[in-house]
Amino acid sequence: MSFRSAVITFPGSNCDRDMAVALEQISGTAPARVWHGDAELPESLDFIALPGGFSYGDYLRSGAMAARSPITKAVVAAAGRGVPVLGICNGFQVLTESGLLPGALMRNASQNFVCRDVPLRVENNQSLFTSGYDSGETIHIPVAHHDGNFFADEDTLDRLEGEGRVAFRYLDSVNGSQRDIAGILNDAGNVLGMMPHPERAIEDAHGGSDGRALFETAIKGLVAA
Amino acid sequence: MKVHIHVSLKPGVLDPQGRAIHHELEALGFSGVNDVRAGKLIELDVADGTSDDDLDQMCRKLLANMVIENYRIEKLENA
């Protein structure tokens, strides 16, 4: 059975090709490439990826415009039906702006764009996306963002922690995120948003391949299902 | 009708931009600046008779992110 995935491209997305290459390389099947103005997703998708970049030039707020584009409505509906959705960097910003994930991603506390490999701790390895890691394992994944400073009110943060929905946490100071949160899951566990870029760490030539397990386990779990 | 939408960060939400501006004002020698918060002003030109409810919905659905921001609607009657 082949793996049916889609990568959504907005005007200003710039990690869509990297994401498509990662999905094709690891699943053996090229993802459908879907444009922001499309009203519908391909049928019976196993996986949807919202890539990094600067959709709509980050106008108003990062991810704000993309979150309201026609295709995002279709992504929200698909997520509601249980289709796994992975949002990386700008994709994470789109997920919070669309309401699929709680909180908001604000300007980095340092005001600086941060672009480097960062150590992350895997906090929850029970999800579709993270079961290829050990709980508490340290992995190294690149970040490249200006607006990665995760904010949510204390009640929301406590709920995320209590429900095991913090997937990844920064091990050093990266962007001022509350409780060093780098990636979170929705309550059903089928939507993951994270600022670091696992698709940029899938082979040794990238300087590390710690991101590979995320795609491998997700794809394996979905094809087997 | 001209309408100004003032979007500001909620109290308690850290404002790195405001902090940087504050720091720079002090570096320029202005003392006595207690705090700086940076927000946005969005100027709308809307049809006369646009309802308050519509303006409110515009703010809630797009112009402000209610997780981190507040908004204030100012109608400029004679503009």
What can you see in these coordinates?
- Chain A has 225 residues and is α/β, with parallel strands linked by helices.
- Helix content of chain A is 24%, strand content 24%.
- Chain A has a single domain (5-224), classed as 3-Layer(aba) Sandwich (Rossmann fold), CATH 3.40.50.880.
- In chain A, α1 links the parallel β1 (5-9) and β2.
- Chain B has a single domain (2-76), classed as Mth169, Chain: A (2-Layer Sandwich), CATH 3.30.1280.
- Chain B has two helices and three strands, in the order βαβαβ.
- Chain B has helices spanning 16-27, 52-63, and strands spanning 2-9, 40-45, 69-76.
- In chain B, strands 2-1-3 form a three-stranded antiparallel β-sheet, with helices on one face.
- The chains are: A alpha/beta (225), B alpha+beta (79).
- The A-B interface holds A 60-61, 64, 68, 96-97, 102-104, 106-111, 149, 151-153, 176 and B 13-14, 16-17, 20, 61-63, 65, 67-68.
- Chain B: Keywords: ATP-binding, Cytoplasm, Ligase, Nucleotide-binding, Purine biosynthesis.
What would CATH call the homologous superfamily of chain A?
Class I glutamine amidotransferase (GATase) domain
Highest CATH level, the class of chain A: Alpha Beta
Uncertain residue segments of chain A: none
- Under the CATH scheme, which architecture of chain B would be assigned? 2-Layer Sandwich
Number of helices of chain B: 2
Largest sheet of chain B: 3 strands, antiparallel
- Into which percent range does the helicity of residues of chain A fall? 10-25%
Structural domain count of chain B: 1
Q: Kindly state the percentage of residues in helix of chain B.
A: 25-40%
Major sheet of chain A: size, sense and barrel closure? 9 strands, mixed
Straight-line N-to-C gap of chain A = 10 Å
* Unreliably modeled segments of chain B: none
CA radius of gyration of chain B: 16 Å
- CATH class of chain B reads Alpha Beta
Subunit structure (chain B): Part of the FGAM synthase complex composed of 1 PurL, 1 PurQ and 2 PurS subunits.
Enzyme class (chain B): ligase
Catalytic activity (chain B): N(2)-formyl-N(1)-(5-phospho-beta-D-ribosyl)glycinamide + L-glutamine + ATP + H2O = 2-formamido-N(1)-(5-O-phospho-beta-D-ribosyl)acetamidine + L-glutamate + ADP + phosphate + H(+)
Protein name (chain B): Phosphoribosylformylglycinamidine synthase subunit PurS
